[in-house]
Amino acid sequence: MLTVFTLFADSHAEETTEPDPSILIPAIPDLVWGTIAFALILGFMLFRFVPKINGALDARSDAIAGGIKRAEEAQAEAQAALEKYNAQLAEARGEAGRIKDEAREDAKRIRGELVEQAQTDAARIVANAQNQIEAERAAAMVSLRGQVGTMAIDLASGVIGESLDDKKASSIVDRFLADMAAADKADNSGTKAKAGK
Fold first, then answer.
1. pTM passes above 0.70
2. What distances in angstroms separate CA 40 from CA 6, 21, 44, 47, one per listed residue?
3. How far apart, in whole angstroms, are the C-alpha atoms of residue 84 and residue 90?
4. Cβ(174)–Cβ(148) below 8 Å
5. Secondary structure (DSSP) of the chain
6. Of 152, 154, 157, whose CA–CA distance to 173 is shortest?
7. What is the block-wise mean pLDDT of the chain (197 residues), using blocks of 10 residues?
8. Which of 17, 97, 157, 182 has the largest CB neighbor count within 10 A?
């Protein structure tokens, strides 16, 4: 068929003595056949490839939209996790502060108890020491009373030149020791008064 058109075009060219056609403006038959071929190829492309291209573009836009949605969901989850973490951190800080305050209160209470116990122990030790001192003093007084009494009777017998009976000697010793105890108490109260000043 193409040969027929070529022959027809050659015969037509020989019959007409027209100048050579322009390169930019095609001949009418070339224009018609070119337009028909272009329309066929364009129809085939539109029918065959455009739906596939549109499907691929739709899938791509869905993937992008899905990716954006997933990214937004991941960002929302991360924000929720951050808020939860911050809430737990604030709760932990509050708990740590409360524990620290409780520890301070416990330390004050324990320190107070220890000071009180130490003062009680010190007072008990001082009282025991004073009781022991008094007991030793009383024992020393009893011992001294006997020794001083014997010595006083011996001295008095030596001075008087006669022996004294036990009853008389005992009353002299008791009076002497009472005078000594009174003098000792007076000295102790005077010393305490001076120490208090």
1. no
2. 22, 27, 6, 10
3. 10
4. no
5. -HHHHHHHHHHHHHH--PPPPPSSS--HHHHHHHHHHHHHHHHHHHHHTHHHHHHHHHHHHHHHHHHHHHHHHHHHHHHHHHHHHHHHHHHHHHHHHHHHHHHHHHHHHHHHHHHHHHHHHHHHHHHHHHHHHHHHHHHHHHHHHHHHHHHHHHHHHHHHSSPPPHHHHHHHHHHHHHHHHHHHHHHHHHHHHHHH-
6. 152
7. 58 54 80 94 91 92 90 92 93 92 92 92 91 86 74 70 65 74 74 55
8. 157
Placement of tokens 């008095």 in the chain: 156
Residue 36 in tokens: 């028909």
30: its two tokens: 């070339």
Q: Residue type for 162, please?
A: E
Residue type, 49: F
